[in-house]
Amino acid sequence: MILETGRDNARLKERLEKIVSTNRVSHAYLFEGPTGVDKEAFARGFIKGVLCPKGLGENCGECSICNKVDHGNHEDVSWIRRDGLSVKDAVVTSIQEKLNVRPVGGRNVIVISDSDTMTPQAQNRLLKTLEEPPGDALIILLSENMENLAQTIQSRCVKFRIDASSQTAEDESAEMLIRMALAGRRFHELVHEAGDDLRDRIKAGQLLDSMERVYRDMLFEEHQDVQTYKPEEICRYVECIEEARTRLEQKMSAEYAMKELLLEITG
Questions:
Q1: Among residues 145, 161, 177, which one ends one of the domains?
Q2: Same domain for 146 and 173?
Q3: By the 8 A CB rule, do 92 and 82 touch?
Q4: 92-141, pLDDT tens digit by residue?
């Protein structure tokens, strides 16, 4: 299992290219990254590297296979996206049927966007495929929060973290809010600092992504701030952020959802 952290994704691209060039492609990968990161672009680049006949370890961008992947019409590549709020069991059934059909080229490729929204039934069904993948099938899961996936699924995937290439205003606000919370600052001070992000649904969603990334980095990088809170407490804060995200998806007022979150963090 490989987990790539850090904001510079150059090493991640190099690692993926090396996997392809040394012919060490596994049957399942899990790419995790925030909303602002184009995870599908990473997946396309990796798929082109795997399928490209030139075997350069990266896509050539010239052959018919690379062009088909770019245009979304390659016969052996299927993209699965959520229906409404989740990826449902019936969709995973269609994946299994696709994987049992002999590919036109060397292998079947399945990409599941928003994989962390799979229902429990869908995850259980996918697990069977991950345990016994047919042929040289390649399955790629894209996720904003891999913790929503069962550990049994995670353990059967090679995992990579795709980070934002640069720090946004939301990243800076999130870091400031979390530092203030860690320092024991009061609820009204955090509300004042969050400002317009409490009232703007889009900004609130971006802020949630950034806050979750800061907390997760504390765990993965064994940040010194973990000494202030136990890892399980930080995991609880991540769960609070996910609950706030659910409130936003359910059309709750952005201001109310964010205030609820800040109360939970400072309470």
A1: 161
A2: no
A3: no
A4: 998 888 888 888 888 899 999 989 999 999 999 999 899 888 888 999 99
